[in-house]
Amino acid sequence: MSVTTHQLIQWKQQGRSIVALTAYDYAIAQLIDQAGVDIILVGDSLAMTVLGYDTTLPITLDEMLHHAKAVRRGVKQALIVVDLPFLTYQESPQQAMHSAGRALKETGAQAVKLEGGYPAMAATVSQLTSAGIPVMGHVGLTPQSVHQLGYKKQGKTAEAADRILAESIALQEAGAFAIVLEHIPADLAAQITQKLTIPTIGIGAGPHCDGQVLVTSDLLGLSEKQPPFAKAYANLRETITQAVTDYSLEVREGKFPE
Ligand code: KIV
Ligand code: NA
């Protein structure tokens, strides 16, 4: 049985930390699912980590769905969430419904994630959840707004912190089943986590969230550069470079194949 949104809320109540990671393809999705991750996010970080774009802005819905289908084929347990890319949901609730509907119907994912809070995004989330589409929110540093926010920590002034808290509450009231808190002060994340009945999933938001998410390329040490809050648990750049160097040498020296 696959992880459900209902289960995530129970885990919050029980104090069981939720583990989330991104995946963009079949092979990695299968490995991280078998390792027992709870949520697999087909994040639009795909634009940067796999497709080589400078920001997440250029990726299309079709590109996201292409990767989400591959992820779906690799996953048996985890809840799969697909990011709606920039300008495939901000225009109107109708546009969001169309995009989210495609994400669920064409890929078999169980939920979508979108960035931003209130008031416009809360109204959109409300329409999606009314139609039976589970929505994960995302506030704090929202990379689709990079040209306004940059990649710096959000919610540092009392005013900004209040706004992020208000956005989180509005998203919960609109029916979101969980919220990603990205790059905000740990005490603000703790305060939001305490106020909400739905789980908070932190990234660069300190240890007091109900769960954590990382970009898998950062976790594996595969990213060209990674944000200050990420932690590499492996160094795949080094491993891959070494393997390719060894192979090249053996071919050139006539050692492979034997
Ligand atoms: O696209 C992504 O990888 C994300 C996570 C960082 C939450 O949105
Ligand atoms: Na994203």
Describe this structure in words.
The chain is an alpha/beta fold and 258 residues long. Helix content is 45%, strand content 14%. Strands 1-2-3-4-5-6-7-8 form an 8-stranded parallel β-barrel, surrounded by 7 helices. Strand 3 (79-83), helix 5 (93-107) and strand 4 (111-113) form a beta-alpha-beta unit. The longest helix has 17 residues, at 158-174. It binds 3-methyl-2-oxobutanoic acid and sodium ion (NA).
What small-molecule ligands were found?
3-methyl-2-oxobutanoic acid, sodium ion
CATH architect. name = Alpha-Beta Barrel
Mean pLDDT: 97
Q: Helix- and strand-based class?
A: alpha/beta
Helix content: 40-55%
Strand content: 5-15%
CATH superfamily annotation: Phosphoenolpyruvate-binding domains
Order of helices and strands: HEHEHHEHEHEHHEHEEHH
Unreliable stretches: none
Straight-line distance between termini: 47 Å
TL;DR of this structure?
With 258 residues, the chain is an alpha/beta fold.
List strands and helices in order, with pairings.
Blueprint: H1 5-14, E1 18-22, H2 26-34, E2 39-42, H3 46-49, H4 61-74, E3 79-83, H5 93-107, E4 111-113, H6 120-130, E5 135-140, H7 146-149, H8 158-174, E6 178-182, H9 186-195, E7 200-203, E8 211-214, H10 216-219, H11 236-252
Parallel strand pairs: 1-2, 1-8, 2-3, 3-4, 4-5, 5-6, 6-7, 7-8
Helix pairs in contact: 2-4, 4-5, 5-6, 6-8, 8-9
Bound molecules: 3-methyl-2-oxobutanoic acid (KIV) and sodium ion.
